[in-house]
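Reader question, answered in our methods column.
A reader sent in the components of a multi-part assembly and asked whether the whole thing could be modeled at once rather than chain by chain. We filled in our standard form and ran it. Here is what they sent:
COMPLEX SIZE: two components
ENTRIES:
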Amino acid sequence: MKLKLNQISYSVKSKKILTGVDLELRAGQTTVVLGPNGAGKSSLIKILSGYLQPSSGEVLIDGQAVAAHSLAQRSQKIAVLTQRSSLDFPFTAREVIQMGRTPFGITDDRHGVADELLDVFGISGGQSYISMSGGEQQLVQLARVFAQIWGRGEDVFLLLDEPMTALDLRHQALVARLLEEKSQEGTGQLVVMHDINLAAEIADQIILMSSGQIVALGSVDETLTVDNLEKTFNTPILRIGEGSMRFYRASLR
Amino acid sequence: MKLFFLTCLLVCAVFASLFFGSVAISLKDMFLVFTGEGQSSLSTIVLNIRLPRSLLAMLVGAGVAASGAAIQGLFRNPLADPALIGVSAGAALFAALFVVVGGGQGAAMLGITGSGFLGGVLATFLVLFVGRRGGGLSTMLLAGIAINAIALSGVGLLSYLSSDTQLRSISFWALGSLNGAGWSSVSFALVIPIAVYFIYREAPNLNVITLGDEEAEYLGVSHTKLQLRIVLLCAVAVGIGVALTGVIAFLGLVVPHLIRMTLGSNHQTLIPASALLGGLLLLMADVLSRTLLAPAELPVGILTALVGGPFFIYLILYEQKTRLAI
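And here is the structure of the entire assembly that came back:
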């Protein structure tokens, strides 16, 4: 499966959110989007998934316009994690994860998939969602999104908006491993995050975005340079170490 | 299993309710009535007065409570009430309008019911129209509040302009009562379980919409289409009930809350369980309303508000405490 953006621009009233974005996402490829707050990263996900209509340009799923796919068809091809969900009812963790299988109807084995994911994420299925900590809730939401693509290999795409938010190191590593596993199964992934070093670890392709435009797009080595990062984040960046041992952080001075 | 238990309880309650009223009926007489060998006066009381009244209470209670569960899910707010979509206030306004402007005494029952239903549906359409133009649930919520206020001020104006007899009719209707329920009312109310069934079919979509409109779209559920279906189905389920019995307060708010606390939030359980408990509670409230001050009758809406209000405050405080404990 392939997702393509051709010359996408998106504005709200007179404010330009995205300008002239060209992008191609392929099956089995992990693309990480990095950029400052308000760079247009979340809007990029909303346009890729067909939730928002661009002001100009086209979004193609396997060469076909996104609008040619019904909502039900899109939900079977693309799973999205948003930055926050409004869930405020005492559903159990298992019930929330089962919601991820909604696109596949009542004949689907939602219980089996949920059990598997509860096991993978180490979540207790009977726990009430609203009584969980922020990090635990994020894990349940991630498990729900993974449930939507579970067992579907290269037929699906995963779009994750800041999946590591509120997760401790152990769970960040768990999610990173899961992304790697799904990538090997052929699932295309686009992940928005703020951790440059983790991005370097998991990405096949990196997009640096600023003010609604792509500053740099390419492999980790091509894009993650001090110059590009400073241009993107508009702040001094320090690189510590070399090669695979390099590490980036913002200069505090 | 829990749904089966609630169903059994409801069936037993319907049967038990036939014994309550100003005329005492023994178990033996009841048996004779059902075998067709009872006294004709007792048969009339049981089969033409108490049975249709109990069935109506059950159907109306089920419709209001199931709609409450669906509206709370749709608005993602456990404090939402079916009245928020304007149905009750619209029905009250049109019922008052019928009493004051079109109000003959003879055809009053049918007229007031029909007008009430029409008013409920029209007010709902107005809330939907304004809400959709505003583009969000919050606009719909605000539109509901505004239209409720406008309709209720209309009721106030009509009450001010009405004669003493008309004022009494309006007040009794607004208080909610199952007095005068007959088989014709029950036959109208049979639309309610159909609407509740269609609400139940939306249960998986209602589960998903609680995650948020955007999340629901990613799971293949169009929030705008779901909103339209749920609001219209609730307008029918509540509108018919309100039109037949008047305003039944608090049931649509308290019952789903109670079920959510005991059986969880999954709408596949929540909606049928709310319908069963709503039917059971309105039936019990009606039995109380006709026995507490017998031979006089207390409007059932007063009882539901009187018991439901403090109970709801307790629920809010209990929930707050539970959350703080977490």
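What stands out: The longest helix of chain A spans residues 134-149. The longest strand of chain A covers residues 15-26.
Send us your own complexes using the same form.
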